[in-house]
Design a protein that fits this description.
Blueprint lengths: L1 H19 L3 H17 L3 H17 L3 H17 L3 H12 L9 H15 L5 H14 L2 H17 L3 H14 L6 H13 L12 H7 L3 H10 L3 H8 L4 H14 L2 H13 L22 H11 L4 H8 L3 H14 L5 H10 L7
Helix pairs in contact: 1-2, 2-3, 2-4, 3-4, 4-5, 4-6, 5-6, 5-18, 6-7, 6-8, 7-8, 8-9, 9-10, 10-11, 11-12, 12-13, 13-14, 14-15, 16-18, 16-19, 17-18
Length: about 350
Protein backbone atom coordinates (compact mmCIF):
# COMPACT_ATOMS: atom_id res chain seq x y z
CA UNK A 1 0.00 0.00 0.00
CA UNK A 2 2.84 2.40 0.84
CA UNK A 3 4.40 1.59 -2.53
CA UNK A 4 1.11 2.41 -4.27
CA UNK A 5 0.79 5.71 -2.39
CA UNK A 6 4.31 6.72 -3.46
CA UNK A 7 3.51 5.81 -7.05
CA UNK A 8 0.32 7.84 -7.01
CA UNK A 9 2.15 10.81 -5.49
CA UNK A 10 4.64 10.71 -8.37
CA UNK A 11 1.81 10.59 -10.90
CA UNK A 12 0.11 13.53 -9.16
CA UNK A 13 3.37 15.48 -9.34
CA UNK A 14 3.71 14.57 -13.02
CA UNK A 15 0.21 15.91 -13.63
CA UNK A 16 0.90 19.11 -11.72
CA UNK A 17 4.10 19.82 -13.65
CA UNK A 18 2.52 18.98 -17.00
CA UNK A 19 -0.40 21.32 -16.35
CA UNK A 20 1.90 24.09 -15.10
CA UNK A 21 4.09 23.92 -18.22
CA UNK A 22 1.28 23.30 -20.73
CA UNK A 23 2.60 19.87 -21.67
CA UNK A 24 -0.74 18.75 -23.00
CA UNK A 25 0.00 15.16 -24.01
CA UNK A 26 1.92 14.49 -20.80
CA UNK A 27 -0.93 15.92 -18.73
CA UNK A 28 -3.48 13.79 -20.54
CA UNK A 29 -1.32 10.72 -20.05
CA UNK A 30 -1.08 11.50 -16.33
CA UNK A 31 -4.88 11.78 -16.08
CA UNK A 32 -5.15 8.42 -17.83
CA UNK A 33 -2.62 6.71 -15.58
CA UNK A 34 -4.11 8.11 -12.38
CA UNK A 35 -7.63 7.07 -13.35
CA UNK A 36 -6.39 3.62 -14.37
CA UNK A 37 -4.74 3.05 -11.00
CA UNK A 38 -7.88 4.16 -9.16
CA UNK A 39 -10.08 1.96 -11.37
CA UNK A 40 -7.88 -1.11 -10.86
CA UNK A 41 -8.09 -0.50 -7.10
CA UNK A 42 -11.90 -0.27 -7.41
CA UNK A 43 -11.81 3.26 -6.07
CA UNK A 44 -14.55 4.39 -8.44
CA UNK A 45 -15.18 7.91 -7.05
CA UNK A 46 -11.47 8.75 -7.42
CA UNK A 47 -11.36 7.19 -10.88
CA UNK A 48 -14.37 9.28 -11.97
CA UNK A 49 -12.78 12.45 -10.63
CA UNK A 50 -9.65 11.94 -12.73
CA UNK A 51 -11.66 10.78 -15.75
CA UNK A 52 -14.09 13.70 -15.75
CA UNK A 53 -11.23 16.17 -15.41
CA UNK A 54 -9.09 14.32 -17.93
CA UNK A 55 -11.85 14.03 -20.55
CA UNK A 56 -12.62 17.73 -20.23
CA UNK A 57 -8.91 18.58 -20.57
CA UNK A 58 -8.40 16.30 -23.58
CA UNK A 59 -11.51 17.69 -25.26
CA UNK A 60 -10.39 21.28 -24.68
CA UNK A 61 -6.96 20.56 -26.21
CA UNK A 62 -8.19 18.42 -29.13
CA UNK A 63 -6.48 15.26 -27.86
CA UNK A 64 -9.08 12.99 -29.44
CA UNK A 65 -7.42 9.61 -28.88
CA UNK A 66 -6.86 10.38 -25.19
CA UNK A 67 -10.41 11.64 -24.85
CA UNK A 68 -11.83 8.45 -26.40
CA UNK A 69 -9.61 6.21 -24.29
CA UNK A 70 -10.66 7.86 -21.04
CA UNK A 71 -14.29 7.84 -22.13
CA UNK A 72 -14.20 4.06 -22.54
CA UNK A 73 -12.61 3.75 -19.11
CA UNK A 74 -15.39 5.88 -17.66
CA UNK A 75 -17.89 3.59 -19.37
CA UNK A 76 -16.36 0.66 -17.48
CA UNK A 77 -16.67 2.57 -14.20
CA UNK A 78 -20.34 3.26 -14.89
CA UNK A 79 -20.88 -0.36 -15.90
CA UNK A 80 -19.35 -1.80 -12.75
CA UNK A 81 -21.24 0.60 -10.51
CA UNK A 82 -24.60 -0.22 -12.10
CA UNK A 83 -25.06 3.00 -14.08
CA UNK A 84 -25.65 1.12 -17.29
CA UNK A 85 -27.32 3.81 -19.37
CA UNK A 86 -24.45 6.17 -18.61
CA UNK A 87 -22.06 3.37 -19.59
CA UNK A 88 -23.77 2.80 -22.94
CA UNK A 89 -23.93 6.55 -23.59
CA UNK A 90 -20.14 6.80 -23.19
CA UNK A 91 -19.59 3.69 -25.28
CA UNK A 92 -21.89 4.98 -28.01
CA UNK A 93 -20.08 8.31 -28.10
CA UNK A 94 -16.78 6.50 -28.73
CA UNK A 95 -18.26 4.21 -31.37
CA UNK A 96 -19.78 7.18 -33.15
CA UNK A 97 -16.25 8.53 -33.68
CA UNK A 98 -14.51 5.31 -34.75
CA UNK A 99 -14.77 2.72 -37.50
CA UNK A 100 -12.85 -0.48 -38.24
CA UNK A 101 -9.88 -1.38 -36.09
CA UNK A 102 -9.40 1.03 -33.24
CA UNK A 103 -8.11 0.24 -29.78
CA UNK A 104 -10.94 2.19 -28.11
CA UNK A 105 -13.59 0.51 -30.24
CA UNK A 106 -12.94 -2.83 -28.52
CA UNK A 107 -13.90 -1.79 -24.96
CA UNK A 108 -16.78 0.34 -26.23
CA UNK A 109 -18.28 -2.63 -28.07
CA UNK A 110 -17.61 -4.83 -25.02
CA UNK A 111 -19.51 -2.48 -22.74
CA UNK A 112 -22.49 -2.29 -25.09
CA UNK A 113 -22.55 -6.07 -25.44
CA UNK A 114 -22.23 -6.77 -21.72
CA UNK A 115 -24.98 -4.32 -20.79
CA UNK A 116 -27.23 -6.01 -23.34
CA UNK A 117 -26.46 -9.41 -21.82
CA UNK A 118 -27.44 -8.20 -18.37
CA UNK A 119 -30.58 -6.47 -19.64
CA UNK A 120 -31.64 -9.49 -21.65
CA UNK A 121 -31.41 -7.90 -25.10
CA UNK A 122 -31.85 -10.74 -27.63
CA UNK A 123 -29.24 -9.10 -29.89
CA UNK A 124 -26.47 -8.95 -27.28
CA UNK A 125 -23.97 -11.05 -29.23
CA UNK A 126 -23.62 -8.61 -32.16
CA UNK A 127 -21.40 -6.11 -30.38
CA UNK A 128 -19.44 -8.85 -28.58
CA UNK A 129 -18.68 -10.68 -31.83
CA UNK A 130 -17.16 -7.55 -33.37
CA UNK A 131 -15.26 -6.83 -30.15
CA UNK A 132 -13.88 -10.38 -30.11
CA UNK A 133 -12.79 -10.15 -33.74
CA UNK A 134 -10.91 -6.92 -33.08
CA UNK A 135 -9.48 -8.08 -29.72
CA UNK A 136 -8.06 -11.26 -31.25
CA UNK A 137 -5.84 -9.05 -33.39
CA UNK A 138 -4.25 -7.63 -30.25
CA UNK A 139 -3.94 -10.94 -28.35
CA UNK A 140 -3.94 -8.78 -25.20
CA UNK A 141 -5.58 -10.24 -22.14
CA UNK A 142 -6.89 -6.87 -20.95
CA UNK A 143 -8.92 -6.69 -24.18
CA UNK A 144 -10.03 -10.33 -24.27
CA UNK A 145 -10.94 -10.88 -20.60
CA UNK A 146 -13.92 -8.46 -20.42
CA UNK A 147 -15.33 -10.02 -23.59
CA UNK A 148 -14.92 -13.49 -22.09
CA UNK A 149 -16.74 -12.35 -18.94
CA UNK A 150 -19.71 -11.22 -21.03
CA UNK A 151 -19.70 -14.43 -23.07
CA UNK A 152 -19.67 -16.44 -19.84
CA UNK A 153 -22.81 -14.65 -18.67
CA UNK A 154 -24.53 -15.45 -21.98
CA UNK A 155 -23.67 -19.13 -21.47
CA UNK A 156 -24.78 -19.01 -17.82
CA UNK A 157 -28.21 -17.61 -18.64
CA UNK A 158 -28.54 -20.21 -21.40
CA UNK A 159 -27.72 -22.98 -18.92
CA UNK A 160 -24.60 -23.94 -20.88
CA UNK A 161 -22.27 -24.77 -17.98
CA UNK A 162 -19.81 -26.49 -20.31
CA UNK A 163 -19.26 -23.21 -22.13
CA UNK A 164 -18.97 -21.32 -18.84
CA UNK A 165 -16.20 -23.66 -17.73
CA UNK A 166 -14.42 -23.60 -21.09
CA UNK A 167 -14.36 -19.79 -21.25
CA UNK A 168 -13.21 -19.39 -17.64
CA UNK A 169 -10.48 -22.03 -17.90
CA UNK A 170 -9.25 -20.50 -21.14
CA UNK A 171 -8.81 -17.11 -19.48
CA UNK A 172 -7.09 -18.56 -16.42
CA UNK A 173 -4.71 -20.51 -18.62
CA UNK A 174 -3.92 -17.46 -20.71
CA UNK A 175 -3.18 -15.47 -17.56
CA UNK A 176 -1.20 -18.04 -15.60
CA UNK A 177 1.66 -15.55 -15.17
CA UNK A 178 -0.66 -12.57 -14.71
CA UNK A 179 -0.82 -11.46 -11.08
CA UNK A 180 -4.17 -9.78 -10.53
CA UNK A 181 -6.36 -11.06 -7.67
CA UNK A 182 -9.48 -9.48 -9.19
CA UNK A 183 -8.91 -11.19 -12.53
CA UNK A 184 -8.33 -14.59 -10.92
CA UNK A 185 -11.22 -14.06 -8.56
CA UNK A 186 -13.69 -13.35 -11.34
CA UNK A 187 -12.92 -16.40 -13.46
CA UNK A 188 -12.30 -18.74 -10.53
CA UNK A 189 -15.70 -17.68 -9.18
CA UNK A 190 -17.36 -18.69 -12.45
CA UNK A 191 -15.75 -22.11 -12.27
CA UNK A 192 -16.94 -22.45 -8.68
CA UNK A 193 -20.43 -21.31 -9.63
CA UNK A 194 -20.51 -23.89 -12.43
CA UNK A 195 -19.56 -26.61 -9.94
CA UNK A 196 -15.93 -26.96 -11.02
CA UNK A 197 -13.79 -25.53 -8.21
CA UNK A 198 -10.18 -25.14 -9.24
CA UNK A 199 -7.13 -24.92 -7.01
CA UNK A 200 -5.26 -21.70 -7.64
CA UNK A 201 -1.97 -20.67 -6.15
CA UNK A 202 -2.67 -17.04 -7.02
CA UNK A 203 -4.34 -14.65 -4.60
CA UNK A 204 -8.08 -14.04 -5.09
CA UNK A 205 -9.72 -10.73 -4.23
CA UNK A 206 -11.73 -10.67 -1.01
CA UNK A 207 -15.32 -10.44 -2.32
CA UNK A 208 -14.86 -13.46 -4.60
CA UNK A 209 -12.97 -15.40 -1.92
CA UNK A 210 -15.76 -14.76 0.59
CA UNK A 211 -18.44 -15.90 -1.82
CA UNK A 212 -16.53 -19.07 -2.77
CA UNK A 213 -16.29 -19.78 0.97
CA UNK A 214 -20.12 -19.57 1.09
CA UNK A 215 -19.96 -16.39 3.17
CA UNK A 216 -22.59 -14.72 1.03
CA UNK A 217 -23.52 -11.93 3.46
CA UNK A 218 -19.91 -10.85 3.95
CA UNK A 219 -19.35 -11.05 0.19
CA UNK A 220 -22.42 -8.89 -0.48
CA UNK A 221 -21.24 -6.32 2.07
CA UNK A 222 -17.80 -6.24 0.45
CA UNK A 223 -19.35 -5.61 -2.98
CA UNK A 224 -21.64 -2.91 -1.58
CA UNK A 225 -18.70 -1.18 0.06
CA UNK A 226 -17.05 -0.62 -3.33
CA UNK A 227 -20.39 0.15 -5.05
CA UNK A 228 -20.85 -2.93 -7.25
CA UNK A 229 -24.61 -3.57 -6.90
CA UNK A 230 -24.94 -6.34 -9.49
CA UNK A 231 -22.24 -8.45 -7.86
CA UNK A 232 -23.73 -7.73 -4.43
CA UNK A 233 -27.07 -9.05 -5.66
CA UNK A 234 -25.41 -12.21 -7.01
CA UNK A 235 -23.92 -12.82 -3.56
CA UNK A 236 -27.26 -12.20 -1.85
CA UNK A 237 -29.00 -14.61 -4.23
CA UNK A 238 -27.02 -17.40 -2.53
CA UNK A 239 -28.49 -16.52 0.85
CA UNK A 240 -31.75 -17.04 2.69
CA UNK A 241 -35.21 -15.92 1.55
CA UNK A 242 -34.81 -12.38 2.85
CA UNK A 243 -31.45 -12.03 1.12
CA UNK A 244 -32.83 -13.40 -2.13
CA UNK A 245 -35.73 -10.95 -2.07
CA UNK A 246 -33.21 -8.16 -1.46
CA UNK A 247 -31.21 -9.41 -4.45
CA UNK A 248 -34.35 -9.48 -6.59
CA UNK A 249 -35.08 -5.85 -5.74
CA UNK A 250 -31.54 -4.87 -6.78
CA UNK A 251 -31.77 -6.78 -10.06
CA UNK A 252 -35.10 -5.14 -10.86
CA UNK A 253 -33.77 -1.68 -10.08
CA UNK A 254 -30.81 -2.28 -12.38
CA UNK A 255 -32.99 -3.66 -15.17
CA UNK A 256 -31.08 -6.96 -14.95
CA UNK A 257 -33.97 -8.95 -16.36
CA UNK A 258 -32.35 -12.39 -16.92
CA UNK A 259 -30.84 -12.47 -13.43
CA UNK A 260 -34.13 -11.30 -11.91
CA UNK A 261 -36.15 -13.93 -13.75
CA UNK A 262 -33.72 -16.71 -12.79
CA UNK A 263 -34.03 -15.68 -9.15
CA UNK A 264 -37.84 -15.54 -9.34
CA UNK A 265 -37.88 -19.10 -10.64
CA UNK A 266 -35.51 -20.18 -7.87
CA UNK A 267 -37.77 -18.62 -5.24
CA UNK A 268 -40.91 -20.20 -6.70
CA UNK A 269 -39.22 -23.61 -6.84
CA UNK A 270 -38.34 -23.31 -3.15
CA UNK A 271 -42.01 -22.66 -2.35
CA UNK A 272 -41.91 -18.91 -1.80
CA UNK A 273 -45.22 -17.22 -2.61
CA UNK A 274 -46.11 -13.62 -3.41
CA UNK A 275 -42.97 -12.96 -5.43
CA UNK A 276 -43.10 -9.62 -7.27
CA UNK A 277 -43.71 -10.16 -10.98
CA UNK A 278 -41.34 -7.38 -11.88
CA UNK A 279 -42.00 -4.07 -13.57
CA UNK A 280 -44.35 -3.89 -16.52
CA UNK A 281 -42.65 -3.53 -19.91
CA UNK A 282 -43.89 0.05 -20.12
CA UNK A 283 -41.98 0.98 -16.98
CA UNK A 284 -38.77 -0.90 -17.67
CA UNK A 285 -35.67 0.93 -18.83
CA UNK A 286 -35.15 0.81 -22.58
CA UNK A 287 -33.44 -2.55 -23.27
CA UNK A 288 -31.06 -1.00 -25.81
CA UNK A 289 -30.20 1.89 -23.50
CA UNK A 290 -31.85 4.46 -25.78
CA UNK A 291 -33.06 7.68 -24.19
CA UNK A 292 -36.60 8.98 -24.72
CA UNK A 293 -35.29 11.52 -27.23
CA UNK A 294 -33.32 8.84 -29.09
CA UNK A 295 -36.48 6.74 -29.32
CA UNK A 296 -38.27 9.71 -30.89
CA UNK A 297 -35.46 10.09 -33.41
CA UNK A 298 -35.48 6.35 -34.13
CA UNK A 299 -39.23 6.40 -34.73
CA UNK A 300 -38.86 9.23 -37.24
CA UNK A 301 -35.95 7.38 -38.87
CA UNK A 302 -38.30 4.44 -39.37
CA UNK A 303 -40.68 6.85 -41.14
CA UNK A 304 -37.90 7.63 -43.59
CA UNK A 305 -37.28 11.18 -42.33
CA UNK A 306 -33.98 12.86 -43.08
CA UNK A 307 -31.96 14.46 -40.28
CA UNK A 308 -33.18 17.89 -41.35
CA UNK A 309 -36.81 16.74 -41.25
CA UNK A 310 -36.28 15.12 -37.83
CA UNK A 311 -34.80 18.38 -36.55
CA UNK A 312 -37.79 20.37 -37.79
CA UNK A 313 -40.31 17.99 -36.21
CA UNK A 314 -38.53 17.84 -32.84
CA UNK A 315 -37.41 21.51 -32.85
CA UNK A 316 -33.74 20.62 -32.46
CA UNK A 317 -30.71 21.43 -34.61
CA UNK A 318 -29.44 19.15 -37.36
CA UNK A 319 -26.17 18.80 -35.45
CA UNK A 320 -28.07 17.53 -32.41
CA UNK A 321 -29.93 15.06 -34.62
CA UNK A 322 -26.57 13.89 -36.01
CA UNK A 323 -25.38 13.14 -32.47
CA UNK A 324 -28.57 11.22 -31.67
CA UNK A 325 -28.35 9.18 -34.88
CA UNK A 326 -24.70 8.30 -34.18
CA UNK A 327 -25.62 7.20 -30.65
CA UNK A 328 -28.53 5.10 -31.95
CA UNK A 329 -26.32 3.35 -34.53
CA UNK A 330 -23.70 2.63 -31.89
CA UNK A 331 -26.15 1.32 -29.28
CA UNK A 332 -27.83 -0.94 -31.83
CA UNK A 333 -24.45 -2.03 -33.29
CA UNK A 334 -25.71 -0.91 -36.70
CA UNK A 335 -23.66 0.58 -39.50
CA UNK A 336 -26.47 2.30 -41.41
CA UNK A 337 -29.79 3.96 -40.62
CA UNK A 338 -31.66 1.18 -42.42
CA UNK A 339 -29.85 -1.47 -40.38
CA UNK A 340 -30.66 0.38 -37.15
CA UNK A 341 -34.37 0.47 -38.04
CA UNK A 342 -34.25 -3.23 -38.94
CA UNK A 343 -32.59 -4.13 -35.62
CA UNK A 344 -35.12 -2.01 -33.73
CA UNK A 345 -38.02 -3.77 -35.44
CA UNK A 346 -36.57 -7.23 -34.78
CA UNK A 347 -35.97 -6.36 -31.13
CA UNK A 348 -39.48 -4.89 -30.75
CA UNK A 349 -38.08 -1.51 -29.80
CA UNK A 350 -40.45 0.05 -32.32
CA UNK A 351 -43.61 -1.32 -33.91
CA UNK A 352 -44.07 -1.91 -37.65
CA UNK A 353 -46.09 0.78 -39.38
Amino acid sequence: MAHEEKGRAKLEESLRLSLAHNLEEHASRAFTNLSSVAFNNHDYPLALRYLDEGIAYATEHDLESCQRYMTTMRAFVHFETGRWTMATDDAAAVLGESRGYNVTRIPALTILGHVRVRRGDPDASRALEEAQELAMQTKEIQRLAPIAAARIEIAWFAGDLEQVVAEAQSMLQMAKDYSDPWFYGEFAFWLWRAGVPEFLEQEISEPYALQMANKWRAAADAWKEIDCPYEAAIALSSGDKAAQLEALAIFEKLGANPAAENLRQKLRTSGVRGIPRGPRPSTQENPAGLTARQMEVLSLMSDGCTNAEIGERLFISSKTVDHHVSAILAKLAAHTRAEAVSVALQSNLINPK
